[in-house]
Amino acid sequence: MANLRKLKKQIDYCLEEIVFDCDMAICFQPSKEEQIMQLMQEAVALRNELFSKAMNPAEPHNRSLVRKHYAALRLEIAAAFEGLVEKLSAVNGEK
Length: 95
Fold this sequence. Notes:
Layout: H1 4-28, H2 33-55, H3 63-93
């Protein structure tokens, strides 16, 4: 089972990458600043939601269920932040 601290660091790392990409997008396309800022706010809300899920497993005393919970959470982290990257790409691709 992964360390909870490492899982939270992974969530923060993904958030930092999204925020950095959004900052760069704002620099290159200032006309889309409002859309990009909404995307950044969505990323922060997602980070808070994922932290809440990480800190509160369903059955904290059942090791098997906790492992399954964190495995599912890792998959959710990857899918959620991948979705945000795709949204940012779509915003950047608009003319």
